[in-house]
Every structure is written in structure tokens, then in C-alpha cells.
Amino acid sequence: MTRLRSRLRIGDAFGLAWLGLKARPGRSVLTALGIAIGIAAIVAVVGISASGRADLLDQLDRLGTNLIRVGPGQGILGGPAELPEDAPSMAARIGPVENVSAAGLVDVTIRRTDLIPELETGGLSLVAVDPNLIEVLGASMGMGRFVDSGLAEMPVVVLGEVAAERLGIRNLENERLIYADGWWLSVVGIASDLDLHPDLERSAMVGFPAAEAMFGEVHPTALYLRVIPEAVDDITEVLPSTVNPENPDRVEITRPADALAAREAADSALTQLLIALGSVALLVGGVAIANVMVMSVLERRMEIGVRRALGATRRHVRSQFLLESIMLAGSGGLVGAGLGAGITLGYATLRGLRLDVPVEALGGAVAAALGIGAIAGLYPASRASRIPPSEAVRGSR
Amino acid sequence: MPVLRLRQVHKTYPGPPPVEAIRGVDLDIDPGEMVAIVGPSGSGKTTLLHLMGGLDRPSSGLVEINGVDVSRVSDRELSGLRAAKLGFVFQEFFLLAGVTALDNVAQGLVYRAVPPRDRRKLAAVALEKVGLGDRMTHLSTRLSGGERQRVGIARAIVGDPAIVFADEPTGNLDSVTSEEIVRLLLDLNAGGSTIVVITHDLDLASRFPRRVSMRDGNLL
Ligand SMILES: Nc1ncnc2c1ncn2[C@@H]1O[C@H](COP(=O)(O)OP(=O)(O)OP(=O)(O)O)[C@@H](O)[C@H]1O
Ligand SMILES: [Mg+2]
Fold first, then answer.
1. B50 C-alpha vs ligand 1 centroid, how far in Å?
2. Which of A56, A132, A177, A286 is buried most, with the most CB atoms less than 10 Å from its CB?
3. Looking at this predicted complex, what is its ipTM?
4. Is B92 a pocket residue for ligand 1 (Cβ < 6 Å)?
5. Superfamily of domain B4-213, CATH level 4
6. B208: nearest Cα among B173, B170, B172
7. Looking at per-residue confidence, does A119 or B34 come out higher?
8. Pocket residue to mutate for ligand 1, from B9, B12, B45, most atoms within 8 A of Cβ
9. pLDDT tens readout for residues A104-124
């Protein structure tokens, strides 16, 4: 009986599905839209967070994990939040510490001019720094130069980026002065890449000798240590009693890299939440497709009858509706993946992030859409295939 | 040897209540015959046509289509039989909307795995045969009722079937157009096609070489 087999070419199977979708373009587009939106959301979230992470890892690389910040803890008795005078030299004596740089908060306000009231300091502070600070932090100069050894005794400052912005200083083409309690200080540089040091980013930095000449004694309020990476934990342990033997509990030790790690953890928690939301959108999209396909089967009874009369087997009918559903969801998935990649590109460009849309995410998104289409189409397709041909061609009579 | 052989065919639609639509029909149709089935509404004409066309199976009795006993083949093989040997024309045309006349006709060959190019060539030939050579690229929805039915007939004959079945093919057409369709069917029969047509219209039926009358599930 082999000569009586119905045969449908693979290409025709797709062709028939395409015909079905093309016959109701508006409905097809709207139905696929749900999947497209869900996929776009997920791809964008994954892409943006991957791009963000790439950037974070870059930052982490530049920063290194072997930077330790030592600050004065909040004393129980509420004494001055500073470190002992000799803290820098004590810290430097620990073997695996490669480099130490100190910074000391100067108790003055800085302003653009003396005409601005003292209270309006914009949250900016003056910090005395060692000449090697920029190098120890792994930061860089956005413009100008740092208050290195040659400038440490001069009344000049380097601004953090936030401080520069708040003081309205965007370039150093003309000499720019800022006012600090009776002194005019000349701006010689603007430091960048201080994102992990918000206190410095919001400060004007001046050399220790210059600060003391103008405002009196300045105690260190922060130490920055570059240490041998393997020794980070050991050093962390001995640091408090080394820099402040009398009050080791008044020492607070942080690793800026930890802040990055925490940020990454928070990012990925948010990412997961957004992906979960996107998945719900996908689920809803899948249900919508199933819905539309069931409706389509009901409406197309006569087409099903004609196809059966023309020789389609149950399986041919099933595959036609299943393929329609898969193509509907798949096209939604493709559009969504493109859209999501586009959104990621736009966001990364806007934020100056390194673009990183994982190929697996794109492939996975489209595969997920196809899977959703297959599942959504299962029931309608099997329903279509079970309509007896004689009843189908009787139409709606 | 008859191309269609029915012996003591019964068809009961399971109820409730059960309807005995066909009650012991014996009928032979030879290759090249043109038969009109007439009878009042509800007499079982469509049911009989579906049994003869392998769209449904009898509750009992023998239905042999082109030498194939339908009780001995699977649903798949029955589909294969329809694809290879049978053509159907419907009262309401049942064309695909948004598709050209040519592509509608070509659908008649899809389940025989005829490559698309050959399909369209054969479809064009079939459309010429029904007198629609100048309407091939028209969308089916832009054709008149008579033209649509010609497309329907072209779709039924494009695969050169052993038998063409038509259930009230002129039921939705005016008398002039009906006359054209009947003439076309007669022409096709003259060209060698075996054709079984259901009609209410006794005038039209009188033009057919052979008439079979039905009443209450039986042939008269
Ligand atoms: N699926 C079904 N279930 C139950 N009864 C049915 C079914 N299909 C048809 N019948 C009944 O079988 C009988 C024969 O129906 P059939 O459609 O074959 O008549 P017909 O001669 O084609 O009528 P018409 O000229 O109105 O088209 C009718 O009484 C009808 O109500
Ligand atoms: Mg009928």
C-alpha cells in the first residue's frame, strides 16, 4: 500500500505554516509581540548586566584586590576620628606592605569664592595627601598633574571629579582658584577613576606640608596600603594593633574591592529579579499564542477539512499548526533578541560601558521562544488533527 | 472493474439519538461514468458521498474505492488514497483566502510531494482546462462565485484523480453560472474523468448520463 502514502515536503510544511500566518498578518504580529517583548526584556537585562559586569571586572582588574584602606573607626567615646601621627610609618614597617599613602582631612571649608556663604560648601572637603596617593590608589589624572613632591609645599590643589563639577571647573585653561578659609588655592589637576573613594572624589587634595603651613597640624584620617596579594588576610589581622597600639578597636579596615564585589552581588540579584519578570512575560506570551492557535483551529475547520480531503494525514495537520505556533513564537523571539541586543547596545553606548551581549543569551532566547511555541502549539495542533474530515468539510452547517 | 463498489453499506451516526443515515446501499460506479445523486434534504446524500470518498467509514458493509477496501486500511493510508486518487469539490468552494487562484489549485498537489515548480505548472494547466487561464494571479477573494467554483474544480482535478466528488457544486450559484459549471463537469467527463455529483436540482440532474435517487438512507 506504499504507493498510497501522502507525502508532504519539509519545505511545504513550513510553507503551509507561513501561509497560515500570512493570512492573518495583524493577529500574527500582535501575538508574536508578546514573546518579542518578553525575550527583548530578558536579553536586554542579561546584556546590560553582562556589560556592566565586564566594566566592573575591568575596574576590579585596574584596582587590584590588594588595596587596603585604613581609617579611624567610630570610637565609643566619640574622640576625634583620626589615626595616630605615626600610623603611616608603623604601617610601612609591616613586611608585606609594599606602599603606603596617607590622607588627612583638613578642618576647613572650600568654596568657589569667598562671596559664597560658609555653609554652602556643597559637601566638599580639603584633604591633605601624600604625593604617591594617586599611584597607590591606581587612579589617574583626568587633566593636569597631581600634587606630587614638587608641589607638596605649594598652595595648590587637585580636585576629585565630583568636586570639580560642583565647583564648576571643567578645564584648566585659565588659572582656577578656590577659596579655603582665608586662602586662595590654585587648581593644578583633576583626578579621575576615584569611583571607589567617594570621600576623595568630593575633595580638593593638597600636599601635607602646604596644608600644615596654612592651617596647622593635620592628622592622618586614612591610610591606603598596597600589599602583597597573598598577605592581605594576615596584614588585615595585624593592622589595627600596628597603627593604633593603644586603641586597636578604633581602626577600621576596608578593601575597596569588596565594595565592587558587593555591587556585583546586588547587580546579579536585580538581574535575576528582572529575568524572572521577563520569564513571566514569556509565559503570558506563550499562553496568548496557545489561545490564538485554539481560536485559529476553530475558525479554520473548513481549511482543515479541505486539507484532509486533499490527502493530508492527521500528522500533516498537526505539524502544520505546530509549526505555525513555533514560527509565531520563533519570529517573536528573533525580533525580541534583536531588540534586546539593540537596547543593550544603546545603553552601553550611553553609559560608556563595554558592550557584552552573550551569544549564549541570544541563542538561548531564540531557543526558549521556539520551545514556548512548541509547547503552546501542542494542544491546538492535536485538536486540529483530531477533527474528522467528514465533519470538517460539512463546515459550520 | 468498477472504480467504486458499495455493498450493503450502513452508516449510523452515534446519538443520542443514533441516526441511521445510510441503510444498506449497494452501488457500483464504473470508470468514466458521470453520476448525479439526487434526493430530498436529509436523505443521506452527503453521508454517502463522504463514504464513497473515504472521508468517513461505514458502520458496516463494504466500500471499495479504486480497488481499496477502506475497512482494511489505516487512516493514513486512506489519506494517501485521497491524495493520489480522489478529488473533491465543495458547495462553498472552500478556497484559501489571501492566496491566488494558481496557488489554491497547486494546494491540490501539496500532499503528493510534487515540487513547487511542477505544482504550479500543473495548476496552470488545470486552470486553463476550467477556462480560468486569465485569472491565475487573482486572489481567490477577488473572484466571482462561478470563478471560485472553477478554481475549486481545478484544484480537484489537478492531480488527475480516478474519481471527482462534488457536493452541491452549484448550490451557491445562480442558474446561468450553474449551467456553466455543469457544462464544465460534462466536458471533464467527456475527457475521461469519473464524476459523482450531488444536486438538489432535478433539471441539472436530468443532464447527467446516470442518476441515482435517494430517500431515507436508501437508493430508490
Ligand atoms: N454528524 C452527524 N451526527 C448525527 N447525525 C448526522 C450527522 N451528520 C448528518 N446527520 C444526519 O444524517 C442524515 C443524513 O444527512 P446528510 O447530510 O447526509 O443529508 P443530505 O442528503 O446531504 O441533506 P442535504 O440535502 O440537506 O445536504 C440527516 O438526518 C442528518 O441530520
Ligand atoms: Mg448534503
1. 11
2. A286
3. 0.96
4. no
5. P-loop containing nucleotide triphosphate hydrolases (3.40.50.300)
6. B170
7. B34
8. B45
9. 989 888 888 877 776 666 788
